[in-house]
Amino acid sequence: MSSSPPPHPASQAPLAHPSLLQVQGVTLAFGGVRALADVSFDVKPHSITAVIGPNGAGKTSLFNTVSGFYRPTSGHILFKGEDITRVPTHQRAKLGVGRSFQNIALFRGMTVLDNIKLGRHSRLKTNVLEALFYMGRARNEEAELRREIEERIIDFLEIDHIRNASVASLPYGLQKRVEMARALAMQPEILLLDEPVAGMNREETEDMARFILDVREEWGVTVLMVEHDMGMVMDLSDHVVVLNFGQVIAQGLPAEVQADPEVNRAYMGSGDVGELRRKLHAGIAKEVA
User: Fold this and answer.
1) Residue range 226-240, pLDDT digits in tens
2) Is pLDDT at 200 greater than 60 in this prediction?
3) Which of 103, 170, 197, 260 has CB atoms 3.0–4.6 Å from 205's, for a disulfide?
4) How sure is the predictor about 271, in pLDDT bands with cuts at 50, 70 and 90?
């Protein structure tokens, strides 16, 4: 990997508010079914916060609410102290909320470079006429965008060798990396990663974990992720939020959450604290074997 990239805009000015993102009493209902019930937690600047829970706990519904795909039935989403509960998805992207998806959402017929460039769409200032005739500002924005993508994002994620390849021709692990690149092209202050290592082998998982840490350390980007890989969650996270049946049943430091009997009951069906630890160790041993 080359030398560290210049500081990301998100890291250049300290935030006046102690929390970058606040989820306050969020309830989400579809008809008579409640996907989320009074969910509250904070995400601190320059932290990695993980949301975990059994299948069907409401994790993706929470992500869709934070990113604006769903509007909560009640409660509020605050970003840098401002209420964005009713702000449309594309406007949240402009504010600095970027995300990836559990199921890869790339344009498979396009190249890697073109997919990444689409991530900047919400921040471009070029009007229709300038874009149509490729005039002044449109040409300058295109040159600046390509330079940043090629010199920072592609180099950072080590995908220079596939920049002109069709996304459809890439293996799954590289497609996940391209999706992360597109999210970084949005210049996010907070990056929402929905199961970033799902379906990856051990080597691909280790690479993605390294990129997530570097995004926080080198770019100053805050990370909020949903992930089932408990070993990775415990290794990377500063704060863990546990959902079950749409409710927060525990949150705190990884070690605190790991020792919580309620979390063990949600995952294991018992209150034995040692069971979750044994599961974590068994998973790690299996990966090493």
Assistant:
1) 998 888 999 999 999
2) yes
3) 197
4) very low
Q: What CA–CA distance (Å, rounded) separates 157 from 112? A: 12
Q: Which amino acid is at 147?
A: R
Of all residues in the chain, what percent carry a pLDDT higher than 70?
74
Lowest-confidence region among 58-67, 74-83, 267-276: 267-276
> CA 145 from chain center: how many Å?
22
Q: Is 31 left (phi over 0), alpha (psi -120 to 50) or beta?
A: left
Q: Which class for 54: exposed (0-12), middle (13-18), buried (19 or more C-beta within 10 A)?
A: middle
For a pLDDT cut of 90, what percent of the chain falls above it? 41
The pair of structure tokens assigned to 157 is 């994620």
Give the pLDDT confidence score for residue 127 in this predicted structure. Answer: 44
Of the candidates 122, 121, 52, which has an alpha carbon nearest to the alpha carbon of residue 87?
A: 122
Q: At what angle do helices 172-184 and 202-219 cross, to 10 degrees?
A: 10
pLDDT of residue 172: 86
Integer Cα distance of 43 and 50 in angstroms: 10
Domains of the chain: 18-96+188-289 (3.40.50.300), 106-186 (no CATH)
